[in-house]
Design a protein that fits this description.
Number of strands: 18
Distance between the termini: 17 Å
Strand order of the largest sheet: 1-2-3-16-13-18-11-8-4
Number of domains: 2
Radius of gyration: 22 Å
Number of helices: 10
CATH class of the largest domain: Mainly Beta
Bound molecules: succinic acid
Low-confidence stretches: 1-6, 147-160
Mean pLDDT: 89
Shape: globular
Helix content: 10-25%
Length: 360
């Protein structure tokens, strides 16, 4: 699944790695430009499949490019497959803009809430209400060490120390003292990389740790996943969502080629929802040596990976945060309330992916 560094070793020049490097964000080497003015290097996107255009031209004239199949079914949405990748399904524009806004809000407000774990747990422990704290311009401050039994640090008599952090009001409430560390909640929000729902994934052991405290995946998300999984469940069995990983991408972030191979039954799909900025997704084969197929993922698209496609390397080498390519304009209208400005600010330069799995 997800390597710690999120990209594969630079020295392994596999076909997958070559494609990652082709699409990754690089800047022109102009030493005079300041960081803000740096210009992204142009990249040739002519080979990237654009399922939005595929859908538009299919709707207009019934035609589709070679290698792309339109699934014949009575499913409510058009679904496309790739001839050479059985088990892969692409549902363009599966979510309305209202649904996208709803899931963006959930991804930022609810999904990182304890007991769900995030990448911040390892450093700070559980952080409740991170989004609200960022919205209210709070600062997260280390207020001292506690022994694991709760005794303050200086009196802990050599017992294990845990640092204790709390949100304070900007600079006003920050306790004075040379040793206290602090970080703005808005920075922590920007540094959010993943959160896990339902059964918690242990990244160090690369396994689900069923002993970790967890809540069930919210029923509305289960219902959406069950509904969207139907094209990949032709025999009509049930899809039972048990775990989800939410990935948060900012400018320059990528997700290196990997397999999602920790679930027991690979015939069950992974339902993968894209929100926010447009991205490039690479779908490779069973070996990193197989040249991957690049495709755009837009907000509202849903991808299913089941059966043989579960054995295929895949990753996200690029998200587009520039105005011309990010395609986040619809959010401006739908997230224009005062309350939503922080969400708007976040999503105009970010992408969120929610992928939902049946584990057992
Ligand atoms: C994943 O491969 O696990 C996530 C893919 C995505 O971000 O669309």
């Amino acid at each position: 699944m997800y390597g710690a560094g999120r990209v594969s070793d630079d020295s392994e020049r596999t076909a997958f790695r070559t494609a990652e490097k082709k699409y990754k964000l690089y800047y022109n080497n102009d030493t005079k430009s300041s960081k803000r003015e740096k210009q992204p290097k142009q990249v040739d996107l002519s080979e990237v499949i654009d399922f939005k255009s595929v859908l538009d031209s299919f709707n207009q004239n019934g035609l589709k490019p070679p290698g792309i199949i339109k699934l014949q079914s009575d499913f409510n949405y058009p679904v496309f497959c790739l001839e050479n990748r059985p088990g892969f399904y692409f549902i363009p524009e599966a979510l309305s803009i209202e649904e996208q806004c709803h899931w963006i809000k959930e991804s930022l407000r609810s999904f990182p809430q304890p007991p769900n774990r995030t990448n911040h747990n390892a450093i700070y422990g559980p952080i409740p209400d991170l989004f609200t704290a960022a919205q209210n311009k709070k600062v997260f401050v280390e207020v001292g060490n506690l022994a694991s039994d709760g005794a303050p640090g200086p009196y802990s008599g050599g017992r294990n120390l845990e640092s204790k952090w709390q949100f304070c009001d900007g600079t006003v409430g920050i306790p004075r003292g040379d040793s206290s560390k602090s970080i703005a909640a808005s920075v922590l929000l920007r540094k959010l990389r993943w959160s896990t729902l339902g059964l918690q994934f242990d990244w160090s052991k690369r396994n689900y740790d069923v002993s970790l405290p967890h809540n069930k995946i919210p029923e509305a998300l289960c219902e959406l996943a069950r509904r969207m999984a139907v094209p990949a469940m032709p025999t009509g069995e049930d899809f039972c969502p048990e775990a989800a990983i939410v990935n948060y991408f900012g400018l320059g972030d990528m997700l290196g080629g990997h397999l999602d191979d920790m679930e027991a039954d690979w015939s069950k799909p992974i339902v993968s929802i894209s929100l926010g900025c447009k991205a490039i997704f690479l779908l490779g084969g069973k070996s990193r040596e197989d040249p991957p197929t690049p495709m755009f993922l837009r907000s509202g698209d849903i991808v299913l990976m089941a059966g043989e496609a579960r054995e295929c390397f895949h990753g996200v080498p690029r998200i587009f945060t520039d105005t011309a390519n990010a395609e986040v304009a619809p959010f401006v209208m739908h997230l224009s309330n005062q309350d939503d400005l922080c969400l708007m600010e976040y999503i105009r330069s970010s992408r969120i992916n929610i992928n939902i799995r049946q584990v057992f």
